[in-house]
Amino acid sequence: MIDIQLSALLAGDLEQLEIFLISRLPRLLAILCTGVGMSVAGLIMQQLCMNKFVSPTTGATISSAQFGILLALLFMPGSTLMGRAVFAFVFAVLGTWIFVWFIQHIRFKDVVMVPLVGIMFGNVIGGVTNYLAYKYEMTQALSSWLVGHFSLVLRGRYEIVWLVVPLVILAFVFANHFNIVGMGRDFSKNLGVPYNLVLFMGLTIAAMITASVVVVVGSISYIGLIVPNLVSMFKGDKIRGTLVDTALFGAIFVLVCDMIGRVVIFPYELPIELIVGILGSILFVGLLLYRLKSGRRAVRFFAAGSSPCENTLNAVRKGEKH
Fold first, then answer.
1. Where do the domains of the chain lie, and which CATH numbers do they carry?
2. How far is the C-alpha of 234 from the C-alpha of 296, rounded, in Å?
3. Considering the chain, what is the average pLDDT of its residues?
4. Buried-most residue among 103, 131, 257, 278 (CB within 10 A)?
5. What per-residue string of b and e applies to 86-118 under the rule 16 or more CB within 10 Å gives b?
């Protein structure tokens, strides 16, 4: 491990500058794009599926992207990272569409039933992926994409994750349409919004964001599930009003998890999938307890319908009356 000193960078040390540009800066940018992308992808899927427990993990999107990468390794062993990314994009989109087709044909859409269908479907895809990997002795080659980590992120090997930026911008542009589609097919038709087109466009955006992250970083669970739920507890469910906050909080969350993974057993590094899994599990249990206790009620620091100024004004008026 090579330490980089800020003083050396400012002094123009070429060796330190080269390490910073080849390794450190790409890693930081990949962390930020991963946090932003996975959080926004989870927010879009939750809004379109009308279920707060749907995410790229529980919607079989990550499993489908891994399956696409395995097929690229099997049929195109000499393919570049971009070639594997194309396979990941195609199968992530197909897997997400099939999952939504399943839940649209469920008669009783219980809040827990929808993510359970996604988890079972994802496990089926994961089982097929593992079977093919063992059969063709590709388990070691596939292992890099089964556990998320940033240790292999270098300049020239991470640029695909930049696709997250235009996709997130596109999601913000169509945020109001996603809100309308999230209210149901009939409501969308009454407002003149093409339900199926917007639904599949939103799911495609979420799937492509997820696939671009999986190709570079690997599988990272819980981000798309936990971050949008935590933000919605404070900001509400309107996607345009929460998308920026979700993206920022997701980037900070992944950055903090990466820092924890690098200092817990220093100088060794824990995979970020492990840190996110531990913190995500704790937050998820707390979220479930809060939902059971308070339902979908948002967290407020002041009385309902009141702000600090209104509270002060009310206190002054009470004093005048006395």
1. 18-316 (1.10.3470.10)
2. 11
3. 81
4. 257
5. bbbbbbbbebbbebbeebeeeeeeeeeebbebb
